[in-house]
Amino acid sequence: MLGLLSAINLRDSKMAERYNIRETEEKWRKVWEDHNVFHVTEDPSKKKYYVLEMFPYPSGRIHMGHVRNYSLGDVVARYRTAQGYNVLHPMGWDAFGLPAENAAIERNAHPKDWTYENITAMRVQLKQMGLSIDWEREVTTCAPDYYKHEQKMFLDFLKEGLAYRKEMMVNWDPFENTVLANEQVVDGKGWRSGAPVERKKLNQWSLKITDYAEELLEAIKTLDRWPEKVRIMQENWIGKSQGCRFTFNIIDKDETLDVFTTRPDTLFGASFAAMAVDHPLAQKLCDGKEGFKDFVQQCQSIGTSEAAIEQAEKIGFNTGHFVDHPFIEGKKLPLFLANFILMDYGTGAIFGCPAHDQRDFDFATKYGLEITQVVAPADGSNIELPFTDDGVMINSEFMNGLSTSESKSVAIKKIEELGLGEGITQYRLRDWGISRQRYWGCPIPIIYCDDCGTVPVPENQLPVELPYDITFDKPGNPLAHHPSWKHVKCPNCGKDATRETDTFDTFFESSWYFARYTDPKNDGISFAKNKAAYWLPVDQYIGGVEHAVLHLLYSRFFTRALSKCGYMDTPEPFAGLYTQGMINHMTYKDKDGKWVYPKDVIKDESGNWVLATGNHEPVTAGRVEKMSKSKRNTIDPQDILDSYGADAARMFILSDSPPDRDLEWTEAGLGGSWRFINRVHSFIMDAKATILAAPQGAPSDAAKQLQKTAHQTIHAVGSAIEAFHMNKAVAKLRELYNAIEEFKPQSGDTALYKEAVEYLIRGLNPMAPHLTEELWSELGHTELLIKTAWPEVNPEYLVADSATIAIQINGKLKATIQLPVDTSKEDAEKAALSETSVANALEGKAIRKVIVVPNRIVNVVAG
RNA sequence: GCGGGCGUGGCGAAAUCGGUAGACGCAACGGACUUAAAAUCCGUAGGGCCGCAAGGCCUGUGGGGGUUCAAGUCCCCCCGCCCGCACCA
């Protein structure tokens, strides 16, 4: 069987006589570039369409995920262009980030040089895909002419009260003296040092995204072209809940404890109160108590990842103190510390009602606490505790008999009357901490002065540029170690002062790049308001679902914050969103159990997987999994582009699976697309004389049918592309090709034949732009296909003149017949019953009923 | 634990409204071409059974039940897989 290598040989032999993919593809890319066909400017006379794929991190080489992402976007961009839209389709580089610093540490490469080299290499690769990108709008986020604008934004946010500084908990690596991202914490240890990670408080800059919690939540409703799943994820992330905050009095202590609950209705079932281990009161009440330190350690050793905590048992520590029940005179509730209470949510403390909450139930069972049922099912049925559904109140004095929702408001009213608290709306969303203790990011334009405090860098001193002469020999932030960079004079008083050495979270750059593309070369301001107004919002945004929450939510927040600061007036950045699936590939292991790259594996004569080199030792094929470097089941797009060409790669990645599902990359499937491209080329070249011949006489019925099929195909392809069903669009075009290939044109048919062939070429253009541009030119067109409008569909040809009617007896198919479209029910029934096979099958049976659905089906009920 | 999604041939998948299940492709098999193989081209194909054949019968969309003239599609229960998450009080 053929693996990749034999397929290349196949190409070489074929190439000599037929379609030279490499040369032809290169030729057309050059023509497009020479004619600058993808460059656009604002044109108020045309409808605009903004297609955007998530911009890549310049890691060095493109991967298959990029190929899928940008192929999808390019289909949309080319289709919309053909439809006459003024299409903006830009590309750029999300160029700040940790990998550049890792490269610096690991192989002594300067982050800037490393990044720019990667950009150069990846630009070549992306261009080789034949994407319809306006490269004049290229944006690189690590360039001072990009990041100086976000320093200005930050200063504006500061003025508007949208940025502030506060203490935040971070993961601290005591050996490296650095803050760790969550993914850098492995089993509670620093990924590089292996030292146990500490939780430490640091002063961090934050953005007030919580100011927009309600607005961000509400506006999700308007995002009707976003996937349902992403909208739900964002809703859950914002996490609005209605509840009640109230204060417990701690008996025998001069302290109170604020708690938050969404179930004030269950207050009569309260049997304990509990707070987070890192609650300020915990230390106060328990310091020195036996077992307290151990308990704290036990809680911290579980780790912060939700997966670990999930497995963990609910454990508590009895403070020995009690709180007063707010409604029941003289009732005391024991006060615990508990590992399942988060300091970050609500007030970091709760009351526990074991009968109506699973966690509280587990906890009470473990510690032998009282369990009082206060909610019963409304239908009086028997239940087992805990019962967490709504119902009617029992054992609840003045609330008895009320429904769950009624008693919630009654309980809140009572709390308010007693002056203990109030009904509140709570959000899960926290402010966005943007400080990072790293070199390769945008410097935060702040200066600290002993006398003047925190001083913004004056705008005329922007940008605060990163120094190039930097070393990574010491642990910690290189900016802080730089001998001179941070030492400046205070802009206010002129005394010695120091710069902020933290840099922005890299989500800062990606939160506004889509706006920068509308005016990428503006030196004075981040983007002109009128240009942003023309192009925004992005009509179609495409990317991985892994950005469903953070990047997309931050961008939505930025759009609002920038509006507040007068930069733009767009309500939402992304009107349409599409999230693509992953690319999977079979995994292989050699006899020693080591992972083997697919390109090193072939099938031998008997169909077994073996190593491509040496003695062809056998290889074990494993599961189909997400492409990853660690499992070595990756395919390098460069190899594919070089050997099969961009069109085949694009076609295959679009044709097999719906784009939102995972795609299994197979060499054989790719070969199928490659063969199709060659077949289309050789067929049209062979038929060229016939296609271009002037018709003699009237066209045959078969030719008219072919013309209809062509129009129907284009119609279906258009709707499929709009619905992101690229696989169906490809299938439809293959059907049209099959019909054309089978068709034997008569002398009067050539005009219609040509029309069908050209519709095929034009329909294929968004997926296979090089091939179709070549064939278009071969058929004598002097105008580029990229400049040619999407084929017109004659609505008359969408209507069939005959319909295939299925005839069923008792719901089972017996025959199919052709009838003119819109044959009356009576005539259809007559025709069905007179069909011989139907008549035979009905012999001796009584016809009870006949159901006729025009143009579709006749079902005879008989028995 | 919570939330979301999915389950159709050997495989990836199609199937507006409930109305001919399996389009299109991959792999497979048969044939043509070839000294031979590959490529290419032509053809076959859900599974099972009967038939020399034409054709016919049964069965089939994870499992069970229901609604309907008719269910991949709607309803109920069950099983399996995948994804997201910050125990959300």
CATH architecture classification of one domain? Alpha-Beta Complex
* CATH-defined superfamily of one domain: Valyl/Leucyl/Isoleucyl-tRNA synthetase, editing domain
What is the CATH fold-level name of one domain? Isoleucyl-tRNA Synthetase, domain 2
Main CATH class of one domain? Alpha Beta
Q: How does the major sheet shape up?
A: 4 strands, parallel
Across the major sheet, the strand order is 2-1-26-27
Low-confidence stretches: 1-16
Helix content: 25-40%
Strand content: 15-25%
- Rounded radius of gyration (Å): 34 Å
Total DSSP helices: 27
End-to-end separation: 55 Å
- Kindly name the structural category: alpha+beta
- What is the approximate shape? globular
**How many extended strands?**
37
Q: What's the average pLDDT? A: 88
Describe the protein in words.
- By secondary structure, this protein is an alpha+beta fold.
- Helix 3 (64-82) crosses helix 20.
- The protein starts with a helix and ends with a strand.
- It is built from 27 helices and 37 strands.
- The strands form twelve sheets. Strands 2-1-26-27 form a four-stranded parallel beta sheet, with helices on one face. Strands 6-5-9-19 form a four-stranded antiparallel beta sheet. Strands 13-14-12-15 form a four-stranded mixed beta sheet, with helices on both faces.
- The relative contact order is 0.11.
- Strand 5 (163-173) and strand 6 (178-180) form a beta hairpin.
- Among the domains are: 153-208 and 431-504, Methionyl-trna Synthetase, domain 2 (Beta Complex); 241-425, Valyl/Leucyl/Isoleucyl-tRNA synthetase, editing domain (Isoleucyl-tRNA Synthetase, domain 2, Alpha-Beta Complex), CATH 3.90.740.10; 800-862, Roll (Ubiquitin-like (UB roll)), CATH 3.10.20.
- Residues 1-16 have low confidence and may be disordered.
- 36% of the residues lie in helices and 20% in strands.
- The protein binds one RNA strand of 89 nucleotides through helix 1, helix 8, strand 11, helix 11 and strand 15.
